[in-house]
Amino acid sequence: MTSPPIQWYPGHIAKAEKALQEQLKKVDVVLEVRDARIPLATQHPQVKQWIGSKERVLVLNRMDMISEQTRQQWGNWFRQQGEAPYYTDAQHGKGIEAVIKAAQAVGAKVNQRRHDRGMLPRPVRAVVVGFPNVGKSALINRLLKRRVVDSARRPGVTRQLRWIRISDQIELLDAPGVLPSKLTDQDAALKLAICDDIGEAAYDTQRVAATLVDLLTDLQVASALETRYTWPVGDRTGEAYLHFLAEERYQGDVERTARQLLDDFRVGQLGPIALEVPPELGGE
To answer: Structure pTM?
Structure first.
C-alpha cells in the first residue's frame, strides 16, 4: 500500500514555535511531555537545543496505555541515558504530584541562586512542551486542579501561548503542540498517526491502520486483534488483514474498518500496548 509521505505543519504551529522560542528565555524549567506508547517518536529533535542549559522534566503521559513491564523497561532505559522520566495519566490525574514536586525542586534551586545574588524569591516559571495531542492540556488542568485550558482527544486544540498561575510557587506557560517542520523519519510519522498525535488530513487512514497491524505482529502482540475481532492475523500482512476483516465484519468497507481499528487502539480497547520498546531490548 503506497501513499504520499506524511507531513503536517499547520500555520498555527509555525507561528507558535517562534513565540515559544522567545518565551523560553523567561522560563526556568521545561516540562517535556511525550506519549508513553511512542516516547522516541514524540521526541522533538530541537527541544534540547531550544532549552539549552535550562532544567527539563521528562513526562511520559498515557502510562495507563502501556503495561507495567514496559514502563519499567523504559524507566531503566531512560535512567541509563541520564534521565528520570515521570509517568502520568493526566486524564485520570495519576502521577501529577511527582511532576509538581520536580518543578518545585527546580524552583528552590532558582530562588537559592537569586538569594545568593541578593534578589527576592519569585514563582518558578515552567512551560509545558510536546507534540500535539500528547496530553499537555490535560496535564495542565491537573496541575491547576481545575479546567482552565481546552483539552480534547485530537491534535491542534491549543493555538496560543499564555501564562497561568498554578500557585504562589509556580507559573505555567501553556503552549500549542510543536512539530518538526519536516517529518524525515516516516516510521516515526506513521506511529504519530496511529496514536492520533498528528492531524488526520496528513495521512491515509487505511495505510496507517495496516501499519498498526504490521507493528503489532512485529511486537508479537497481534493476539490483541484476535481477542477484539475474533479473527487472528496469522501470516497475513497488515493490508491483507484489513481487507479480510472488512469482508468478515464491515460489509467490505475497508475505510470504516481502518477507522474502527485505529479508534479501538487509541482508546485502549486492544489493551495496554506500547508501539516502541527501548532500542537495546528489541521486542515487547
So the answer is: 0.88
